[in-house]
Amino acid sequence: MAVATTDTPSRTGRGLSPRRLLARPEIGAALGALLVFVFFSLFTGRFLSALGVATWLDDASTLGIMAVAVALLMIGGEFDLSAGVMTASTALVTALLATRAGWNVWPALAVSLLFALAVGALNGWLVMRTGLPSFIVTLGTFLALQGINLGVTRQLTGTVQVSGMRSAAGYSSAGSVFASTVDLGGTAYQCSVLWWLALTAIAAVVLLRTRFGNWTFAVGGSLSAARAVGVPAVRTKILLFMTTAGAGWIVGSMNVLRFAGVQANQGVGLEFQYIIAAVVGGCLLTGGYGSVLGAALGALIFGMARQGIVFARWNNDWFMLFLGVLLLAAVLVNNAFAKRAERVRR
Questions:
Q1: Cβ atoms of 27 and 21 closer than 8 Å
Q2: Number of neighbours of residue 227 by Cβ within 10 angstroms
Q3: How many CB atoms lie within 10 A of CB 298?
Q4: Which of 281, 272, 273, 274 is nearest to 329 (CA)?
Q5: What is the phi-psi region of residue 210: left when phi exceeds 0, alpha when psi lies from -120 to 50, beta otherwise?
Q6: Nearest Cα to Cα of residue 86 among 270, 273, 234
Q7: Can you give the pLDDT at residue 17?
Q8: Low-confidence spans in the chain with pLDDT less than 70
Q9: How many CB atoms lie within 10 A of CB 138?
Q10: With 0-12 CB in 10 A as exposed, 13-18 as middle and 19+ as buried, what is 167?
Q11: For residue 312, which of 31, 48, 59, 60 has the smallest C-alpha distance?
């Protein structure tokens, strides 16, 4: 059963008029990305060099893959604090099976994907079954996964890292999919950039052009109203949690194959950056409003700023100040654009 949600603020702004353009949730992120790009382009020449562009795109890509998935979940009205540690958990499953159990990398990747989807489904089921805030449920998952990562890795290896992936069967072919580079004009670009662009495009189509996208906006805007008009709320929320877990598997696979190993505490703390990127991209903390394109732009802002600070030879501590200011500004701007979108709709 299709749900008519095309009149919500998140669906406005499809026309080309300036008034409707300003009502789009990603417009703030687009303006912010332009400002950051111009600033560092003028401040340091390395920023626009071929190697510089490849560096900040690489930085933004893995963050962007996760931010897009997190944005979908936030539009659906939920959070996932286990998204960061999931990248390490899936990488560890792959690495342990490939290096300790002697598996081919591809079956190991398949098992780690099933593990991620199972955890995501469990998160969604617990949230819907218990009625507890997703913040609490996924915080528990975060702590449990972090403990498992450290405990199991130390028990099996005597350290908190797993290495030796290059000697595993199937490493070369799997690496060509998840960790290869593309040469453009003599500069190597990580294939994670292509993954980021492709997944952003797919997510945008799903969100804006499919029934599942309607359901996502509906359950995030008002769960009770969505249920009243026939939206399968439980299924929708569970699938959204599985999406963030699946994105964690993609990023974890990229990391373990690119660096031929994984640290047990990898990814801890990154979940807040994913959420910030989504908020910068136009997602409201209350759900029902946002843009996956905006989340991708939010990740691009992160990548440009983080590497721009390095190119400018500033103390990297300033990046945390940038994050704090960016988050506060994004919340204020998003609220203003949401109100403008509501006026445009009326």
A1: yes
A2: 14
A3: 34
A4: 281
A5: beta
A6: 270
A7: 58
A8: 1-23, 334-346
A9: 30
A10: exposed
A11: 48
Q: Which of 284, 292, 121, 295 is closest to 207 using CA atoms?
A: 292
Side-chain half-sphere exposure of 65, counting CA atoms within 13 A? 28
DSSP class of residue 160 equals S
Phi (first) and psi of residue 261, to 5 degrees? 180, 175
Is there a contact between 238 and 79 (Cβ–Cβ < 8 Å)? Answer: no
What is the Rg, in whole angstroms, of the alpha carbon atoms belonging to the chain?
20
The β-bridge relationship of strands 187-190 and 261-263 is unpaired
Return d(Cα 212, Cα 307) in angstroms, integer.
36
Q: Which amino acid is at 61?
A: S
DSSP secondary structure code for residue 301 in this structure: H
3-state secondary structure of 37: helix
Cβ–Cβ under 8 Å, residues 314 and 1: no
With a CB cutoff of 8 Å and minimum separation 6, the contacts of 142 are 81, 82, 84, 85, 271
